[in-house]
Amino acid sequence: MLILVTTSARSRLSLQAENAALRHQLSVYRKSGKRPRIRPADRMLWSVMPRLWSGWRAALFFVQPRTVTTWQKKRFRDHRRALSQSAKPGRPRISPELRKLIRRIWEANPTWGSPKIVAELAMLGINVAKSTVEKYQPKRARPPSPTWRTFLDQHVRDLVSIDFFIVPTATFRVLFVFFVLAHDRRRIVRFNVTEHPTAQ
Questions:
Q1: Could you say which of 33, 106, 145, 183 would form a disulfide bridge with 159 (CB–CB 3.0 to 4.6 Å)?
Q2: Does residue 51 share a domain with residue 12?
Q3: How far apart are CA 106 and CA 138, in angstroms?
Protein backbone atom coordinates (compact mmCIF):
# COMPACT_ATOMS: atom_id res chain seq x y z
CA MET A 1 0.00 0.00 0.00
CA LEU A 2 2.84 2.39 0.90
CA ILE A 3 4.60 1.63 -2.40
CA LEU A 4 1.38 2.38 -4.31
CA VAL A 5 0.93 5.72 -2.54
CA THR A 6 4.59 6.67 -3.14
CA THR A 7 4.40 5.73 -6.83
CA SER A 8 1.17 7.67 -7.23
CA ALA A 9 2.69 10.75 -5.56
CA ARG A 10 5.77 10.58 -7.77
CA SER A 11 3.74 10.21 -10.96
CA ARG A 12 1.59 13.17 -9.92
CA LEU A 13 4.65 15.34 -9.26
CA SER A 14 6.19 14.23 -12.57
CA LEU A 15 2.97 15.11 -14.38
CA GLN A 16 2.87 18.53 -12.74
CA ALA A 17 6.53 19.18 -13.66
CA GLU A 18 5.85 18.14 -17.26
CA ASN A 19 2.84 20.45 -17.47
CA ALA A 20 4.89 23.34 -16.05
CA ALA A 21 7.72 22.69 -18.50
CA LEU A 22 5.37 22.53 -21.51
CA ARG A 23 3.49 25.66 -20.42
CA HIS A 24 6.74 27.54 -19.98
CA GLN A 25 7.92 26.62 -23.48
CA LEU A 26 4.50 27.54 -24.92
CA SER A 27 4.71 30.98 -23.29
CA VAL A 28 8.19 31.47 -24.77
CA TYR A 29 6.86 30.67 -28.26
CA ARG A 30 3.89 33.00 -27.80
CA LYS A 31 6.12 35.91 -26.78
CA SER A 32 8.76 35.48 -29.48
CA GLY A 33 6.98 33.87 -32.43
CA LYS A 34 8.41 31.03 -34.50
CA ARG A 35 11.97 31.45 -33.28
CA PRO A 36 12.03 31.31 -29.48
CA ARG A 37 13.74 34.21 -27.75
CA ILE A 38 15.33 32.79 -24.63
CA ARG A 39 15.86 35.16 -21.72
CA PRO A 40 18.21 34.73 -18.73
CA ALA A 41 15.25 33.75 -16.53
CA ASP A 42 14.42 30.91 -18.96
CA ARG A 43 18.00 29.66 -18.85
CA MET A 44 17.95 29.80 -15.06
CA LEU A 45 14.72 27.79 -14.91
CA TRP A 46 15.99 25.04 -17.19
CA SER A 47 19.35 24.95 -15.45
CA VAL A 48 17.55 24.05 -12.21
CA MET A 49 14.94 21.76 -13.80
CA PRO A 50 17.23 18.69 -14.26
CA ARG A 51 17.97 18.74 -10.52
CA LEU A 52 14.27 18.57 -9.66
CA TRP A 53 12.83 16.32 -12.37
CA SER A 54 14.49 13.34 -14.01
CA GLY A 55 12.20 13.28 -17.07
CA TRP A 56 12.97 16.80 -18.22
CA ARG A 57 14.47 15.66 -21.55
CA ALA A 58 11.14 14.20 -22.74
CA ALA A 59 9.36 17.54 -22.27
CA LEU A 60 12.09 19.70 -23.84
CA PHE A 61 11.36 21.03 -27.34
CA PHE A 62 12.59 24.59 -27.81
CA VAL A 63 16.32 23.74 -27.35
CA GLN A 64 18.54 20.65 -27.36
CA PRO A 65 19.32 18.87 -24.05
CA ARG A 66 23.02 19.59 -24.52
CA THR A 67 22.16 23.30 -24.60
CA VAL A 68 20.64 22.97 -21.13
CA THR A 69 23.78 21.15 -19.99
CA THR A 70 25.86 24.07 -21.32
CA TRP A 71 23.66 26.49 -19.35
CA GLN A 72 24.25 24.43 -16.21
CA LYS A 73 28.03 24.53 -16.68
CA LYS A 74 27.98 28.28 -17.31
CA ARG A 75 25.85 28.86 -14.21
CA PHE A 76 28.29 26.81 -12.14
CA ARG A 77 31.29 28.75 -13.53
CA ASP A 78 29.59 32.09 -12.84
CA HIS A 79 28.80 30.98 -9.30
CA ARG A 80 32.40 29.90 -8.62
CA ARG A 81 33.76 33.11 -10.17
CA ALA A 82 31.49 35.21 -7.96
CA LEU A 83 32.67 33.35 -4.88
CA SER A 84 36.34 33.74 -5.78
CA GLN A 85 35.98 37.46 -6.57
CA SER A 86 34.14 38.17 -3.34
CA ALA A 87 37.06 36.90 -1.25
CA LYS A 88 40.04 39.18 -0.80
CA PRO A 89 43.14 37.91 -2.62
CA GLY A 90 46.36 37.05 -0.80
CA ARG A 91 46.98 36.27 2.82
CA PRO A 92 44.83 37.85 5.53
CA ARG A 93 46.43 40.92 7.07
CA ILE A 94 47.58 40.63 10.66
CA SER A 95 46.69 43.21 13.28
CA PRO A 96 49.11 46.02 14.28
CA GLU A 97 49.17 44.61 17.82
CA LEU A 98 50.50 41.29 16.55
CA ARG A 99 53.16 43.08 14.51
CA LYS A 100 54.33 44.94 17.61
CA LEU A 101 54.37 41.69 19.59
CA ILE A 102 56.55 39.98 16.97
CA ARG A 103 59.00 42.90 16.99
CA ARG A 104 59.13 42.90 20.80
CA ILE A 105 59.93 39.18 20.87
CA TRP A 106 62.69 39.69 18.29
CA GLU A 107 64.20 42.56 20.27
CA ALA A 108 63.98 40.72 23.61
CA ASN A 109 65.47 37.50 22.18
CA PRO A 110 67.98 38.42 19.46
CA THR A 111 69.42 34.89 19.37
CA TRP A 112 66.09 33.24 18.59
CA GLY A 113 65.25 32.17 15.07
CA SER A 114 61.88 32.52 13.38
CA PRO A 115 60.83 28.85 14.07
CA LYS A 116 61.33 29.44 17.81
CA ILE A 117 59.19 32.59 17.71
CA VAL A 118 56.48 30.77 15.72
CA ALA A 119 56.43 28.06 18.39
CA GLU A 120 56.22 30.62 21.21
CA LEU A 121 53.31 32.39 19.50
CA ALA A 122 51.57 29.03 18.94
CA MET A 123 51.70 28.39 22.72
CA LEU A 124 49.85 31.69 23.13
CA GLY A 125 47.19 30.51 20.65
CA ILE A 126 48.48 32.69 17.81
CA ASN A 127 49.11 30.85 14.54
CA VAL A 128 51.33 32.73 12.09
CA ALA A 129 53.58 31.60 9.28
CA LYS A 130 57.36 31.58 9.52
CA SER A 131 57.59 34.04 6.61
CA THR A 132 55.27 36.45 8.46
CA VAL A 133 57.52 36.41 11.53
CA GLU A 134 60.58 37.05 9.36
CA LYS A 135 58.78 39.88 7.57
CA TYR A 136 58.37 41.87 10.80
CA GLN A 137 61.85 41.18 12.12
CA PRO A 138 63.43 44.50 13.17
CA LYS A 139 66.20 45.61 10.87
CA ARG A 140 69.54 45.71 12.68
CA ALA A 141 72.28 48.03 11.54
CA ARG A 142 75.16 45.93 10.25
CA PRO A 143 78.68 47.26 9.83
CA PRO A 144 79.55 47.68 6.16
CA SER A 145 81.68 44.89 4.77
CA PRO A 146 85.13 45.95 3.56
CA THR A 147 85.77 46.18 -0.12
CA TRP A 148 88.21 43.95 -1.96
CA ARG A 149 90.60 46.88 -2.33
CA THR A 150 90.56 47.48 1.45
CA PHE A 151 91.24 43.80 2.07
CA LEU A 152 94.25 43.86 -0.26
CA ASP A 153 95.67 47.02 1.34
CA GLN A 154 95.42 45.48 4.82
CA HIS A 155 96.88 42.06 3.93
CA VAL A 156 99.22 42.79 1.05
CA ARG A 157 102.30 42.11 3.22
CA ASP A 158 101.04 38.60 3.97
CA LEU A 159 100.07 37.67 0.41
CA VAL A 160 102.28 35.65 -1.90
CA SER A 161 101.83 34.14 -5.34
CA ILE A 162 103.08 30.65 -6.10
CA ASP A 163 103.62 29.29 -9.59
CA PHE A 164 104.92 26.01 -10.99
CA PHE A 165 105.44 25.72 -14.74
CA ILE A 166 107.68 24.13 -17.39
CA VAL A 167 110.13 25.77 -19.79
CA PRO A 168 111.32 23.96 -22.95
CA THR A 169 114.93 24.69 -23.83
CA ALA A 170 116.62 25.11 -27.22
CA THR A 171 118.08 21.59 -26.89
CA PHE A 172 114.58 20.13 -26.36
CA ARG A 173 115.01 19.65 -22.63
CA VAL A 174 112.17 20.38 -20.22
CA LEU A 175 112.89 22.37 -17.09
CA PHE A 176 110.48 22.64 -14.17
CA VAL A 177 110.35 26.09 -12.57
CA PHE A 178 108.97 26.88 -9.13
CA PHE A 179 108.95 30.27 -7.49
CA VAL A 180 107.20 32.24 -4.74
CA LEU A 181 106.61 35.98 -5.22
CA ALA A 182 105.72 38.41 -2.38
CA HIS A 183 103.06 40.99 -3.31
CA ASP A 184 104.21 43.93 -1.21
CA ARG A 185 107.49 44.60 -3.12
CA ARG A 186 107.27 42.06 -5.91
CA ARG A 187 110.06 40.29 -4.13
CA ILE A 188 111.03 36.71 -5.04
CA VAL A 189 110.87 34.70 -1.82
CA ARG A 190 111.75 31.30 -3.26
CA PHE A 191 113.04 30.22 -6.67
CA ASN A 192 114.20 26.88 -8.04
CA VAL A 193 114.71 25.17 -11.42
CA THR A 194 115.17 21.46 -11.88
CA GLU A 195 115.03 18.89 -14.64
CA HIS A 196 113.85 16.07 -12.37
CA PRO A 197 111.43 17.37 -9.70
CA THR A 198 110.71 15.29 -6.62
CA ALA A 199 108.06 15.57 -3.95
CA GLN A 200 110.56 17.17 -1.61
A1: 183
A2: yes
A3: 7
